Q: What sequence folds into this?
């Protein structure tokens, strides 16, 4: 496994957003910005679309970097501040999860 840097994680998330945007109507497409709200109040993704984004990200992490990370584990779901609220929170969570998996 190679070390994954935050800019690479941001690019990977933006690439996953591109894939999800192909399925969204024009008025709900996500912007490639770290402040984009993904899910929750004023977020553009519905539950199944969020699941799709998560699966795409997990697949890309494994394909591009050889990193196995589960984004739907109990830890992610039980956090007071959802890691799926914004792109920035998702990137922070991914960075932390990748580092933890490298130390196992």
A:
């Amino acid at each position: 496994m190679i070390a994954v840097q935050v800019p690479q994680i941001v690019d990977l998330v933006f690439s996953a957003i591109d894939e999800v945007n192909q399925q969204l109507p024009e008025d709900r497409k996500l912007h490639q910005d770290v402040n984009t709200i993904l899910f929750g109040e004023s977020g553009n993704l519905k539950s199944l679309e969020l699941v799709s984004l998560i699966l795409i990200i997990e697949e890309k992490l494994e394909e591009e970097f050889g990193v196995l990370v589960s984004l739907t584990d109990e830890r992610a779901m039980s956090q007071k501040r959802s890691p799926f609220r914004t792109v920035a929170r998702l990137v922070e969570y991914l960075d932390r999860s990748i580092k933890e998996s490298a130390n196992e």
